[in-house]
Amino acid sequence: MSNTHSHVSQRLSCKRVQLFSLRVLQMGTEGEQLTEQETAIYDRQIRVWGVDAQRRLSKSHVFVSGLKGTSIEFCKNIVLAGVGSLTLNDDRLVTEDLLFANFLIPPDENDFRGKSVAELCCDSLKDFNPMVSVSVEKGALSIFDADFFQKFDVVVISYCSLLTKKSVNAKCHKLPKRVAFYSVECRDSCGEIFVDLQNYSYCKKKNEETIECELHYPSFEEAIAVPWRSLPKRMSKLYYAMRVIERFEELEGRNPGETSVDDLPNVQKLRKELCEAHCLNESQIPDSLLKRLIASRSEFPPVCAIIGGILGQEVIKAISGKGDPLKNFFFFDAMDGKGIIEDMSNANS
């Protein structure tokens, strides 16, 4: 009796899956429909966020520049989720530091000799999901003009200078279509995500009703231009500390992560100048926090996994149009395990 019941249950289960797949293939009123192969691979995801969201993901094009621990976690997540294409940009050659938190780079030196970080990561990501087109774009991020970013739906940059962040974000704003912009960075056991979705519309359910929402995002340059004295008193200390170090690296002509504990006196001096200019008490940027952010050049893989996972979720929200998107800064500190969202556009208004 038990074996007969088991066989009947299996046949019924298979029948339900077949009927579900058939409904999925028949659904979809806009754009191309999902193929049978896509439906089979993304079956569980479709059950969670729906066929329309999965179709949008499958037709989306994502660009990622700066491949370190956090952005690598993000790339893994969106490739598994099934974006249409992923373009990688990072011409650096592999070093011991890059191997620490980048699980996509093979540990054998003979495997990565002569190849860039982007090329090695591209080879590994292709094995994660053969349905996703993964490619490499060579060249410094600063040389790409606005037309280059026109072909993407999402642009994610990591570990680049303050000037480059502003420049790439501004180029995305110039385009006739909306291109979602994200910058992400981890220092020591802390992480920051910035989001700019420009003028963004989405739907969400409230009390069993679907309501349309609209959000306006400031650019990165506009967001960090908000005077500190106008920010909430309980503003994340990590926001101020990141801006001080970012500004220090800009003045010194350094790349992110090229500071050390030897720079602490000069960073403290700059903190004093910025706090005086913004009428902010220096206690809002503790010495202990500044020291942590500049003393360690290594990434913490657990923090990279957390930040990369959150970034992946936010990009999926932006592409699918489902769920409340993050607006517009997110901070995480492993010391207290807290994630904090700060909306700089509200402060600006």
UniProtKB/TrEMBL annotation:
Cellular location(s): Nucleus
InterPro entries from the UniProt entry: ThiF/MoeB/HesA (IPR045886), ThiF_NAD_FAD-bd (IPR000594), Ubiquitin-activating_enz (IPR035985)
One of the Pfam families matching this protein, by short name: ThiF
GO MF terms held by the record: SUMO activating enzyme activity
Record flagged with keyword Protease: no
Keyword line: Acetylation, Ligase, Nucleus, Ubl conjugation pathway
GO cellular component, one term: SUMO activating enzyme complex
Database matches in SUPFAM superfamilies: Activating enzymes of the ubiquitin-like proteins
GO BP, sorted A to Z: protein sumoylation
Domain THIF-type NAD/FAD binding fold: 42-338
Pathway involvement of the protein, from the record: Protein modification; protein sumoylation
Keyword Plastid among UniProt keywords: no
Protein family: Belongs to the ubiquitin-activating E1 family.
Subunit structure: Heterodimer of SAE1A or SAE1B and SAE2. The complex binds SUMO proteins via SAE2.
Name of the protein in its database record: Ubiquitin-like 1-activating enzyme E1A
Source organism (scientific name): Anisodus acutangulus
